Amino acid sequence: MSTTRKRFIAGAVCPSCNAMDTLAVWREDQVEVVECVKCGHHQRQTEQQVEKHVRPQEQVIGIFHPE
């Protein structure tokens, strides 16, 4: 089991509760995850190269990487 190191984003403001310096970021399966440690708001961001292949009316839910 690998542990993922969470890092805080200095000066960032949570889009949900507007608290400053409460956003932590880490990577899960090649997807960047941002979470507010105050209110629990989650946001996932895919890699730039995947995002540019997504058509404007679609959303990426996850990325499948066969092992």
TrEMBL record:
UniProt superkingdom: Bacteria
Listed InterPro entries: YheV
A UniProt-annotated Pfam family: DUF2387
NCBIfam families assigned: YheV family putative zinc ribbon protein (TIGR02443)
Protein name, as recorded: YheV family putative metal-binding protein
Organism name: Serratia silvae
